[in-house]
From TrEMBL:
<dbReference type="InterPro" id="IPR002575">
    <property type="entry name" value="Aminoglycoside_PTrfase"/>
</dbReference>
<protein>
    <submittedName>
        <fullName>Aminoglycoside phosphotransferase family protein</fullName>
        <ecNumber>2.7.1.-</ecNumber>
    </submittedName>
</protein>
<feature type="domain" description="Aminoglycoside phosphotransferase">
    <location>
        <begin position="48"/>
        <end position="255"/>
    </location>
</feature>
<dbReference type="GO" id="GO:0016740">
    <property type="term" value="F:transferase activity"/>
</dbReference>
<dbReference type="Pfam" id="PF01636">
    <property type="entry name" value="APH"/>
</dbReference>
<keyword id="KW-0808">Transferase</keyword>
<dbReference type="InterPro" id="IPR011009">
    <property type="entry name" value="Kinase-like_dom_sf"/>
</dbReference>
<dbReference type="InterPro" id="IPR051678">
    <property type="entry name" value="AGP_Transferase"/>
</dbReference>
Amino acid sequence: MHNVLEADIPDGPFSSDLVSAVLKAASAHTGIDSTDARLMRLGENALFHLPDSSAVVRIARSRDHWDDAVKEVAVASWLHESGLPAARLYDLDQPISVSGYPVTFWRYIDGRNGGRGDVGALGRLLLKLHETPRPTTFELPEQDILARVQPRIESASVPNADKRFLLNRVVELRDEINALKFPLEPTATHGDAHVQNLMISDGAAILIDFERFSWGQPEWDLAMTATEYLSAGWWTAEEYREFCEAYGNDVTQWDGFKILQAAHEIKMTTWIMQNIDESEEIAAEYATRIATMRTGHATEPWRPF
């Protein structure tokens, strides 16, 4: 492993204080000024914007995610060579390990995150991705849809009854997914294909966040927006139709979709579960999502974070 640093990083959960210490050490190592850093997101990763350096710094939540960071670097180069509009790396030898936390530096994209009105752009960009030939200079890992769900459940500060329910659901879903007969051919997949993993710059959509890239079924990418529409209530029927028309496929018409929908629900619920101690709003949203999973219907729309 290259670029290994040991630094004075506080013990404890993945928090704003911890990632700020990691950022400070990584910036000192690279010589990139981070005094103006702004924390953009704290979720599966921490994202910082460094305006003076026109950089975005990505810090992975777990020391176990080194291989994913290595993959992200390889995927970024491959997408650039393939001509697909995607995030570009900062010109550094990376990833960097700071006391075990993987860190990568990216070129800042002057624009905005995808949102309302961009769902068609997501469909078109996913189609381009799924049509891109398999990389030849590195191996994409085989798709493992539920890879991170169980560790999230085991480490979360939620009631044991919730943990038992969720862990049992993971076992059921793994069996159901393994039994599926997918209609589409395997492709490179994004793995977390929601509209906020687009940046819109000068009217053009750019793909970001390559952490969950794998070789597998494109239905998984398509089912993300479908689940946001049907389970979370984040899209109107017209917006979802626009997504399907842009891609050329409506995954909800496949009889295996309900299983992928359930898998996305548990991923979305356990993702937000990681940060329930950060705010009352996040804790309340987790309660809404786990209730939806237990009852099979949402009593109120899910809130995006």
